[in-house]
Design a protein that fits this description.
Layout lengths: L5 H11 L4 E2 L15 E2 L6 E4 L3 E7 L2 E2 L16 E2 L1 H19 L9 E7 L4 H12 L16 E5 L4 H11 L6 E3 L16 E3 L4 H14 L4 E7 L2 H14 L5 E8 L5 H13 L4 E5 L2 H13 L6 E4 L15 H4 L3 E5 L7 H6 L10 H11 L25 H4 L6 H20 L45 E9 L5 E10 L8 E3 L26 E5 L8 E5 L4 E2 L9 E2 L4 E3 L6 E3 L1 E3 L5 H26 L4 H5 L2 H17 L9 H34 L6 H4 L3 H26 L2 E5 L6 E7 L3 H24 L9 H25 L3 H32 L6 H5 L3 H11 L25
Parallel strand pairs: 4-7, 4-8, 8-9, 9-10, 11-12, 11-13, 13-14, 14-15, 25-27
Antiparallel strand pairs: 1-2, 3-7, 5-6, 15-16, 16-17, 17-18, 19-20, 21-22, 23-24, 26-27
Length: about 900
């Protein structure tokens, strides 16, 4: 046993008093004052064997027990026996026996072992740890004396139990090698300086699980964990790894350490109601067994389980009844190995070979449902003695690909090789202070620090961790209907980032015996053409899909934002790609053709009127209406109709300069002619006799001067416009961002409005003069038609201004072209339609006598003073002024 110093007692007395024995110290440190330790209770069952050096072993041979109290003599009753853990214990026993039989490893020494049951519970694990610290048997250790033969402890399976055991062993500097405790908390070397493990750290497992979730786009997952350090640290690690990814945790539930059915049903209710169809479980086999039993009773299906290494290879779940509920489970298992003698060795275990071992009796009861001995409290029938271990007893006989058992095997051999190296140490070449070696008759536990075994080196880093390597396990249906653990990939933590995870997806089977990857999302993926909008107060995995705005696209699924298209591009209808913007201008399409036809028809009508007037130029109606001005007006109107054609077609620099100048000059010419005609009409009706001076200033030459002068003003304005800031073609994207509208920019807005203003000024002056003469007597009063024509002209252009300003794109040009055509038609019809009606349809009214009936003064004066026959250059006069032959004198 150990020689306990006062210092060691200081650290261990509080722990030891809770278990097997109590050690008492007095104030004096003298040896005579130390009272012997007295045995309070014995800890059974256990496997023990003598040896020169002893290795301890702690395994969860039972699980699911009731809460123990703190009575020193309390023995917690086991509830369920675990054949799988019993196989681990026998693997340690086999490894020790192989080492003792080896001529290569520790040839002159033997190893002993002490194997105890932790019952998968921290308090019971504490009892087992103190039992391991005692001698080979409790009866042989009545006092705390002698040096310890215990070199190391192989254990424990659960991280919570390992924490307790490690802290008990720490004051004695006894190394502990865990075969199944993966909690990341053990990397704290200050708290666990003597802890080592042959299973990878959970930091690597949670990293692997996070990569798995990302790999299959499971963005909404649930997490269920056990109520212990393993589950707590694993959950923390997973949440840490998921930061920065698209995966969110929908819920976090905890299975009580002491199983509570009501709590389990609440967890199942959460799983059923959640949209998360993938559930990650960090729990031990013992906790999952009753939970999954109730899970099957509730008949819940459709859950894709992601299992941690603690239960992904648990043989207890391989029965056919589990497949409808657990089939397709995927998880990360410990790296498997090969133990050649394990299967044969397990077959030697029977009640006949171990008649006094209660664990073998419980094994038989668990496998066959019978008692190998006389009926006991279990009330099971007596076994026949013909029972044979079969392969279907997978919980115990699963030796084809041992994983946890192989970890136990490696751990034992690691200790043996380390001890072997210490014993072969040559003086002066040792690993300790002053290159010293360990004493063969007194090897201290802390000297066993570097572990390796032949065939596979087991190296531990500064944190006591081994090489991170996992097999990816998928639960698939075997030929017999049972669940088989199929290797579908691996995770190698030594590889470069992003290359650790290798999955053979074609081998996978998912929940419900499906081949398609399950979907587990809070919100369906946003297709290209939309973006994600996170819902307020919810995780980022819960979002709405918002279609991209016009001019923006997203060409990936689940885009966070939409991107703008380049300047000359626009989004398609699906908002997935940028396409060149449509180029628009007033082309020869339906609208352009309609305007062209109207323009040509208007020009043809004007030419037709011109021909009618020219053919009937000697008639009274034509001559009385000042035929020269009429021809000027018709000439100008023809160009007014035709200049609207310049607005149709793709704008060029020349067409843009011609558009506004052409229509402004032609309209100015037209209005100038009408103004001259209005002045003549007004003067003719207001003069008293043909020789009045006012008519002398409105003769044909003066009329031409008026027309030329008024038109010349507009020409000067247009010339200045073209010189200073001429119109030019531009690409307009303001009216419609999805289109490029080719239009003519006016260059100078001031010049543009000056042009329109001047035309408006002419029209207003003409309207005022015509309005003053509208009520003058006469059978054919020209002033009425001029008034009405100018009124229509002004109405059209007053309506044009707001319509032009508000019209988008090509419609602005269409509006301007329509205004030109409408005003031209208004002038044409109002001024010439009545005359053409008389000339063509009422020729009896086209006589001097008819016209003189009411407007004698106007006719006489206009014919005597103003109008000349264009062909013969003779004045058409009245009878009072004509010659004896009736012909008019020369003008």
């Amino acid at each position: 046993m150990f020689a306990l110093t006062p210092l060691s007692l200081f650290y261990s007395v509080n722990i030891l008093t809770l278990t097997h024995f109590q050690c008492f110290s007095v104030t004096s440190p003298a040896p005579s004052t130390v009272r012997p330790c007295t045995l309070q209770n014995r800890f059974q069952p256990a496997f023990t064997a003598n040896g020169d050096y002893v290795i301890g072993g702690i395994f969860p041979l039972h699980y699911n027990q009731e809460m123990p109290d703190l009575n020193c003599t309390y023995r917690p009753p086991p509830v369920r026996f675990d054949p799988r853990a019993f196989r681990w214990a026998l693997t340690m026993k086999l490894a020790v026996e192989e080492i003792n039989q080896s001529t290569q490893l520790l040839p002159n020494y033997t190893l002993g072992y002490k194997i105890f049951d932790s019952c998968a519970y921290p308090l019971t694990g504490q009892r087992a740890a103190v039992a391991v610290l005692n001698g080979i048997s409790e009866e042989e250790s009545p006092t705390c004396s002698d040096a310890s033969l215990l070199l190391a402890v192989i254990g424990e399976s659960g991280s919570a139990q390992s924490i307790v055991v490690s802290r008990i062993l720490q004051p004695f500097r006894i190394p502990m090698i865990s075969y199944f405790s993966s909690c990341a908390c053990f990397t704290d070397r200050r708290s666990y300086p003597t802890f080592f493990r042959v299973i990878p750290n959970d930091d690597y497992q949670v990293k692997a699980i996070a990569q798995l979730l990302v790999r299959f786009n499971w963005t909404w997952v649930g997490v269920v964990r056990g109520d212990h350090e393993y589950g707590r640290f694993a959950l923390q690690g997973l949440l840490r790894e998921l930061k920065g990814t698209k995966v969110c945790v929908a819920y976090q539930e905890m299975i009580p350490l002491l199983y509570n059915r009501q709590k389990a049903l609440e967890i199942m209710q959460v799983e059923s109601n959640s949209l998360a169809k993938v559930v990650v479980v960090f729990s031990a086999e013992g906790e999952m067994t009753p939970f999954l039993r109730d899970y099957m009773i509730q008949n819940i299906t459709g859950i894709q389980w992601v299992a941690s290494e603690a239960w992904v290879t648990a043989s207890v779940f391989t029965g056919s009844e589990y497949y409808p509920f657990l089939g397709g489970t995927i998880g990360f298992g410990i790296r498997r190995g090969h133990i050649s003698r394990l299967s044969d060795y397990l077959m030697t275990v029977s009640p006949e070979n171990y008649p006094n071992n209660p664990l073998v009796k419980e094994l038989w009861e668990a496998l066959y449902g019978c008692s190998p001995h006389a009926p006991s409290a279990s009330q099971l029938p007596l076994c026949t003695g013909q029972e044979i271990l079969l392969v279907q007893h997978s919980a115990y006989m699963n030796t084809s690909s041992p994983r946890v058992a192989y970890n136990v095997y490696k751990a034992v051999y690691a200790v043996a090789h380390s001890l072997h190296n210490l014993l072969l140490c040559k003086p002066g070449m040792g690993p300790f202070e002053n290159n010293s070696c360990a004493q063969s008759n007194n090897v201290l536990p802390w000297q066993v620090l570097k572990f390796n075994i032949a065939g596979e080196e087991v190296n531990f880093d500064l944190k006591g961790d081994s090489v991170p390597y996992y097999d990816i396990i998928n639960w698939q249906k075997g030929t017999s209907g049972n669940i088989e653990f199929v290797n579908v990939g691996l995770f190698d933590g030594t590889k470069a980032a992003g290359e650790e995870l290798v999955i053979y997806e074609d081998k996978l089977t998912w929940a419900g015996h499906q081949r398609e990857v399950p979907v587990s999302v809070c919100s369906a993926s946003c297709p290209p053409g939309s973006r994600k909008a996170v819902r307020r107060g919810e995780p980022i995995c819960c979002f709405d899909c918002i279609p991209c705005d016009s001019g923006k696209i997203s060409n990936e699924t689940n885009s966070v934002e939409c991107i703008f298209c380049p300047e000359d591009f626009w989004s398609n209808e699906d908002r997935t790609i940028c396409i060149p913007k449509k180029v628009e201008f007033l082309a020869y399409d339906s609208l352009g053709i309609a305007l062209t036809v109207i323009s040509v028809v208007g020009a043809c009508l004007t030419i037709g009127v011109f021909l009618v007037f020219f053919h009937h130029r000697n008639t009274a109606v034509v001559r009385v209406n000042n035929s020269e001005l009429s021809f000027f007006i018709l000439f100008a109107l023809t160009f007014c109709f035709l200049c609207s054609l310049v607005f149709i077609g793709e704008p060029t620099r020349w067409s843009c300069m011609l558009r506004h100048t052409a229509f402004s000059i032609t309209f100015s010419l037209c209005i100038s002619c009408i103004l001259a005609k209005t002045l003549v009409v007004l003067a003719a009706f207001t003069a008293t006799r043909p020789g009045d001076n006012i008519m002398k200033w409105l003769g044909p030459k003066h009329q031409r001067v008026i027309i030329f002068s008024c038109t010349m003003v507009q020409v000067i304005i247009c010339a200045a416009w073209l010189i200073d800031a001429s119109p030019y073609p531009s690409r307009n994207t303001k009216y419609e961002r999805s289109k490029i509208i080719l239009e003519c920019s006016v260059g100078s807005s001031l010049a543009f409005w000056c042009v329109l203003g001047y035309i408006g000024l002419q029209a207003c002056l003409c309207f005022v003069l015509a309005f003053l003469a509208r009520k003058l007597p006469g059978n054919f009063n020209e002033a009425k038609f001029i008034t009405f024509s100018i009124l229509i002209f002004c109405a059209v252009w007053l309506a044009f201004i707001p319509a032009y300003i508000s019209s988008p794109g090509i419609y602005a040009d269409a509006v301007e072209s329509f205004a030109i055509l409408a005003s031209s038609f208004g002038l044409l019809f109002c001024l010439f339609a009545p005359k053409c009606y008389i000339i063509l349809l009422k020729p009896e009214k086209n006589t001097k006598q008819h016209l003189m009936a009411h407007n004698h003064s106007y006719i006489v004066k206009t014919m005597d003073e103003s109008r000349c026959d264009i062909t013969h250059r003779k004045c058409f006069t009245s009878s009072s002024t004509s010659g004896s032959n009736g012909e008019a004198p020369p003008c």
